Every structure is written in structure tokens, then in C-alpha cells.
């Protein structure tokens, strides 16, 4: 067996070497290069689908000197991108090189006059179809996959393009992509509508930053002044303009914050707990795929600082009961940050954390308690302890769980009181939860067994990925919001088959709409009502229920239960 130096031995050996550390071992230098496989990757794997190729062609049109408009036509057969810029002299060596050499051209990362960076997008374009690039009196044709045997593409294949003379002079540039069938959806696919929608979003604020309009299938994609993006929002909102960006923010955290680099859509960020748009004034430093911001981007760091301050100001206008779990998580992270003393003082009195009864409590109130308990939202007796004045925090709530994580972490500034065991405290207080799951299902009567088995079939048909049990409580049912649902006798209002099956259908969807525990005092706010209504009105759910009822009518319960392998 070969002995290897340990890391410490290796470091010692290096340090005691007689040769100076900075002295090269030879006179040879090594230059990193790329082989043929890199060019193949840039062409075949750089972009995910046709929209990425069209995006690159549109960006080239926007960046063309003198361009004021880019027209885009998309159909299942072909895509055409036409700009009115200066075009390219394909009869010159430089012009041909700019369109045939990956990375060639005048684009620079630090150049805010163009929205492109690398000059490699042309590779993605020729991978999606037979391509004709026409400017002035000449066209450059590629058939990368050698799929065309007639017309301008008859004699070209691979990366070898051919220059051809054209009958008409074109001042700008036209890019025609004659789609390869395996690179695009079927002609009647819904994905064509998605392509157009995605491209409209991609260039929504380009005109506001570059002055170049983009028109797709006859309709302008311009969303206007980004400062007006939240002008008509029904939610709390604000706008800010800095030297680096325009911020138009609204309190719609589930939608996320759309980030635009110099007007070009990059990504949607959800970690701020906000909705709206951010449009940078100049280019952000993006990753290779242009769908993320690189960590070393100075401009984004300044925008990020402005975003955090604007977020704090917007949160001040949102009532505690409207704050979502995502927003509350953002706020607790800020409170725990060493650099957020102001946020700590500002938000300590806000009710950001959830008790076992699903009511809210502030950090100040938590810290004022002699001791606190942690529960998962379904722990026996936790809710009753809260009613008796104890502080029992519900860790099934994301923000509350984050508080617990931070409280355990000794490196944060968040401090909480000592803890007690919830189960032991409940037992010593003699509290009863009022919720009892029946463990031995053989003790259920015939009707209860039928209700339970039918509810389990329903869960499977409706895509509710939670276990279903039977229990005793004053409520129709309850759930922990994640793993199980318990139904009770009061879930059904009649022994008539048609009625109780529909009762269970509504009860199962009701509990599925709960994302946290529904015991005792469940939250039935706007988000819950919206979720429940969408589940009830979903055509797929209605159809699944109707088909299941018909199957029961045709075959009987036992046959259905056997088919679904649903037992006790």
C-alpha cells in the first residue's frame, strides 16, 4: 500500500523546501485553452429551448447600432427576427467573423450600451433550425444538423455556413430560423402560447432602458415605465429610484420579485418576501445561462441594500395578520442578523410567531415569558396549555421553526427563555386535547369503516398525499397540514349514500386546503378560502369525484375498495 503525506505533512514539506516558494520549477508556461467539444457544447447545449435562441436573436437586434425596433414572428414552422439597425457587412472579413466565430464581436461585459455579454448566443440559434442571417445584400446560411436538401441550405451542414447573394437590400438584419421538428413542440401544443408569454416577459422593460421597442406577433411587449408597475396594485406598495435601479414593490410575496437587467428579465427572487419588479439601470453581472446574478456583482449589491431598506418600509404598512409565513421568515432572519439592530427593535413587538392555537405572538412577549415550549402543531395538550397562559410555539409554522433554529444557534442575537416539555406539562396540568385518533380501526362500526375507506380512496383520487384516519372530536375533521387527516362522525350529515359521499368530498378538500394544523381554532383567512375554493371548483377534482361515485354505483363499495387496495 502506498503511503501518502497527510495535509499537515504536505504543508510542512512545502514550507521547508529549499527552493523559494515563488520560483518556477521550469521555464515553461501553461495556457488554458478549449477543445472542439466546447464549441459543440456552446451550440447544442447552451440553451434549453427555442425561446432562448429567439431571445439571443432579439438581443442582437436590440444591441445593433441605430436600432429602434425589433419585430418577431413565431409560428410552428419558423421564427423570424427583424431589426432596423445598422446591420452587418457580410462581405467584409470582420462582419463574417462576428457572425461565425463564437465570442467574436464588440460586446463587453462592462458595456451598458449593449445587453449582451459574450457574443456566443449565435451558436444557440443555429442549433434550433436551418438558419438564414440576412443583412444588406448578403445572407449567411447554416444547416447545423444537415436536415435540408433544397433551397439556400442545400449545400451546407454542421458549423460550415454559406454566403449567398440576395435580390433585395436590407438595411438592418433578419434572422430566419426554419425549425427542426425535434427542437420544437407539436404545432397544436400549448407550449407555443407559453413561448410567446415567456418572451413577452423577457423583454417587458427593454424599451424603458434602451429605447428599442420589441413587437412579437404584431403586439408590443412593452410594459411601460417600471415605476408604474404597481400603481394600480390593491396591495400595500411603494416605488423607489436609485442610481442603480428602479424598484416597484408590492406585498404579494407568493408571486416573488421579478429582476430585470437593463430591462431584460433574468429571474424571480422570493427570498425578499415581496412581489413587483426591479429594473437595473445598466447590466447586472449574470451567469453563463443569463438566468441568475453572479455573487460578485457590485451593482446588484447596491440594489440589494436598497431593496432591504425598501422592504422594511413596505412591511411597516402591512398588518401582522396579513404577513405570510415567507415574509415572517424574512423578518426573523433580518432580526437575527448582526447588522440589523434597527430591524430587531422595529419588529420585536410585531406578532410574527405562531402559538399552538394558531394565534400569533411577538418576540417581546416570548422573551417576557418565564419559560416556553415548542410543539409541532399536533402535540397533545399544547393548545390547552396556551389557553391556560403558557407560551407554546407551533414549529409547523415556518417562521416559528426558524426562530427555534436561530435560538439554538449561539452565533445569533436572538435569545429566548428556557424551555419546558410540552407533553409533561400537559400531563401535569391534566388537560384534555379534545381530539382523539382511534388507533384500533377494527373497533369502528360498519358505517364508520365504510366512511374511512371511502375517504382514503378519495384522497388517492384527489391527489391528497396525506394518510387518513378516524377519530373523535367536536370538529368534522382535523389535520396537521402536512402528513395526515382525521375524519369524525360529524363529517357526514346523513346516512344516504349520495349525501355522505359528497360530505366527505368537501371535508377532505377542506382539510387539504389547510397548510398548518386545523385543530381548535383553525385559520380560515383569505389564503385558506382561496385555496379551498380553487380545490372545490377544480374541474379535475370534480371529474374524479363524479367518476368515483359512478364506479361505486356500478360496482359497489367492496369492489371499489378491493380495486384500490384500501383496507383498515
Main sheet: strand order: 3-4-2-1-5-6
Largest sheet geometry: 6 strands, mixed
N-to-C CA distance: 59 Å
How many H/I helices?
19
Radius of gyration: 32 Å
Number of strands: 20
The assembly state of the depicted protein chains is single chain
What is the overall silhouette?
Answer: flat
Low-confidence runs of at least 5 consecutive residues: none
Mean pLDDT: 84
Q: In percent, how much strand structure appears in the residues?
A: 15-25%
Structural class: alpha/beta
Helix content class = 25-40%
Could you explain how this protein is built, in words?
This protein has helices at about 5-15, 35-45, 50-65, 95-100, 120-125, 190-200, 205-210, 300-315, 325-335, 340-345, 365-370, 380-385, 400-410, 420-430, 445-460, 495-515, 525-535, 540-555, 555-565; strands at about 70-75, 80-85, 130-140, 160-180, 215, 220, 235-240, 245-250, 255-260, 265-270, 275-280, 350-355, 360, 370-375, 390-395, 420, 435, 465-470, 475-480, 485. With about 575 residues, it is of the alpha/beta class. It has a 6-stranded mixed beta sheet. Helix 9 (about 325-335) crosses helix 10 and helix 15 packs across helix 16 (about 495-515).
Amino acid at each position: 500500500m502506498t503511503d501518502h503525506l497527510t495535509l499537515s505533512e504536505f504543508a510542512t514539506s512545502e514550507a521547508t523546501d529549499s527552493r523559494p516558494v515563488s520560483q518556477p520549477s521550469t521555464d515553461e508556461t501553461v495556457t488554458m485553452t478549449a477543445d472542439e467539444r466546447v464549441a459543440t457544447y456552446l451550440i447544442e447545449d447552451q440553451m434549453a429551448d427555442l425561446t432562448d435562441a429567439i431571445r439571443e436573436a432579439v438581443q442582437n437586434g436590440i444591441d445593433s447600432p441605430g436600432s429602434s425596433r425589433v419585430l418577431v414572428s413565431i409560428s410552428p414552422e419558423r421564427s423570424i427576427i427583424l431589426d432596423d439597425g445598422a446591420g452587418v457587412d457580410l462581405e467584409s472579413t470582420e462582419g463574417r467573423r462576428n457572425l461565425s466565430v463564437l465570442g467574436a464581436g464588440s460586446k463587453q461585459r462592462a458595456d451598458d450600451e449593449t445587453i449582451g455579454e459574450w457574443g456566443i448566443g449565435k451558436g444557440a440559434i443555429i442549433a434550433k433550425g436551418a438558419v438564414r442571417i440576412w443583412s444588406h445584400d448578403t445572407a449567411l446560411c447554416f444547416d447545423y444538423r444537415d436536415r435540408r436538401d433544397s433551397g439556400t441550405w442545400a449545400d451546407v451542414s454542421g458549423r460550415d455556413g454559406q454566403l449567398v447573394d440576395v435580390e433585395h437590400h436590407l438595411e438592418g438584419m433578419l434572422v430566419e430560423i426554419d425549425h427542426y421538428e425535434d427542437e420544437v413542440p407539436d404545432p397544436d401544443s400549448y407550449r407555443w402560447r407559453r413561448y410567446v408569454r415567456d418572451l413577452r416577459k423577457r423583454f417587458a422593460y427593454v424599451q424603458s432602458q434602451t429605447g428599442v421597442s420589441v413587437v412579437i406577433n404584431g403586439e408590443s411587449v412593452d410594459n411601460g415605465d417600471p415605476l408604474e408597475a404597481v400603481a394600480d396594485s390593491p396591495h400595500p406598495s411603494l416605488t423607489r429610484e436609485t442610481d442603480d435601479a428602479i424598484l416597484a414593490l408590492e406585498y404579494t410575496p407568493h408571486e416573488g420579485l421579478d429582476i430585470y437587467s437593463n430591462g431584460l428579465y433574468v429571474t424571480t427572487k422570493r427570498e425578499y418576501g415581496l412581489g413587483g419588479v426591479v429594473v437595473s439601470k445598466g447590466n447586472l453581472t449574470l451567469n453563463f445561462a443569463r438566468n441568475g446574478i453572479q455573487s460578485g456583482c457590485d451593482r446588484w449589491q447596491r440594489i440589494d441594500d436598497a431593496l432591504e431598506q425598501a422592504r422594511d418600509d413596505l412591511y411597516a404598512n402591512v398588518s401582522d395578520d396579513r404577513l405570510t409565513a415567507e415574509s415572517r421568515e424574512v423578518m426573523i432572519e433580518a432580526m437575527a442578523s448582526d447588522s440589523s439592530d434597527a430591524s430587531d427593535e422595529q419588529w420585536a413587538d410585531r406578532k410574527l410567531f405562531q402559538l399552538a392555537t394558531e394565534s400569533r405572538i411577538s418576540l417581546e412577549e416570548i422573551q417576557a415569558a418565564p419559560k416556553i415550549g415548542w410543539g409541532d402543531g399536533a402535540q397533545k395538550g399544547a393548545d390547552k396549555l396556551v389557553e391556560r397562559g403558557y407560551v407554546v410555539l407551533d414549529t409547523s409554522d415556518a417562521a416559528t421553526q426558524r426562530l427555534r433554529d436561530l435560538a439554538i444557534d449561539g452565533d445569533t442575537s436572538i435569545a429566548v427563555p428556557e424551555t419546558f416539555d410540552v407533553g409533561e406539562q400537559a400531563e401535569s396540568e391534566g388537560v384534555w386535547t379534545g381530539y382523539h385518533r382511534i388507533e384500533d380501526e377494527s373497533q369502528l362500526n360498519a358505517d364508520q369503516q365504510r366512511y374511512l375507506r371511502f375517504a382514503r380512496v378519495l384522497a388517492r383520487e384527489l391527489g391528497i398525499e396525506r394518510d387518513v384516519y378516524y377519530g373523535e372530536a367536536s370538529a368534522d375533521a382535523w389535520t396537521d397540514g402536512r402528513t395526515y387527516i382525521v375524519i369524525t362522525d360529524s363529517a357526514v350529515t346523513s346516512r344516504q349514500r349520495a349525501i355522505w359521499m359528497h360530505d366527505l368530498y368537501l371535508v377532505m378538500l377542506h382539510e387539504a386546503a389547510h397548510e398548518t394544523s386545523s385543530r381548535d381554532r383553525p385559520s380560515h383567512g383569505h389564503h385558506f378560502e382561496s385555496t379551498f375554493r380553487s380545490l372545490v371548483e377544480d374541474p379535475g377534482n370534480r371529474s374524479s369525484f363524479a367518476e368515483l361515485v359512478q364506479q361505486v354505483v356500478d360496482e359497489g363499495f367492496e369492489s371499489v375498495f378491493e380495486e384500490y387496495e384500501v383496507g383498515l
